[in-house]
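User: I've been trying to design a sequence by hand for this structure and keep getting stuck. Would you show me what you'd pick, starting by listing the structure so we're on the same page?

Assistant: Good idea, let's start from the same input. This is the structure you sent:
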């Protein structure tokens, strides 16, 4: 009986080992399957994250491009407006210069009308009227640009006297403003 018991015990141990081995194999298979699924899920999540990052990057690039175009349009419009304003100011300055020239010519006519034409006073008034008339025509014909070019040329030809005149005018202006 002890042999039978021992054989039964051996058989039960063998069955237990087989069952444990099968259970271990099943656990290994389940772990392998779970690991594969986890890896597949991680790969899918990684791909989705990569796709999302690519889409977000593309949208950011599109936004930056659109913003750059808007800035360029605004700058172009502002530049055109500044240019238009400068042109308008230039035309108004030229009109004002022409008006000053006409005003000097009118002043020359009034000097000729009102002052004496005889003697030393007559010669002086004629000289003043002629100077006013010539200056008025010069200003009216040359406008601001021409006058600025003429002044630049005089300064270029005579730099030392120009500096001395500028220093003198600065000194007089400084004294006048201090009072």
């Amino acid at each position: 009986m002890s042999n039978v018991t021992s054989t039964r015990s051996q058989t039960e141990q063998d069955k237990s080992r087989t069952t444990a081995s099968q259970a271990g194999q099943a656990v290994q298979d389940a772990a392998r399957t779970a690991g594969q699924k986890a890896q597949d899920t991680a790969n899918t999540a990684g791909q989705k994250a990569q796709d999302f990052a690519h889409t977000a990057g593309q949208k950011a690039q599109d936004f930056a491009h659109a913003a750059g175009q808007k800035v360029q349009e605004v700058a172009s419009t502002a530049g055109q407006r500044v240019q238009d304003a400068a042109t308008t100011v230039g035309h108004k300055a030229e009109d004002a210069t022409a008006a000053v020239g006409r005003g000097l010519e009118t002043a020359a006519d009034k000097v000729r009308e009102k002052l004496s034409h005889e003697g030393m006073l007559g010669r002086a008034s004629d000289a003043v009227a002629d100077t006013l008339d010539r200056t008025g025509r010069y200003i009216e014909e040359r406008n601001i640009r021409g006058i600025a070019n003429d002044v630049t040329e005089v300064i270029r030809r005579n730099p030392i006297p120009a500096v001395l005149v500028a220093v003198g005018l600065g000194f007089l202006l400084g004294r006048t403003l201090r009072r």
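That's my pick for every position. To get oriented when you compare it with your attempt: The helical segments are 2-114, 119-157, 159-178. Residues 54-178 form one domain.
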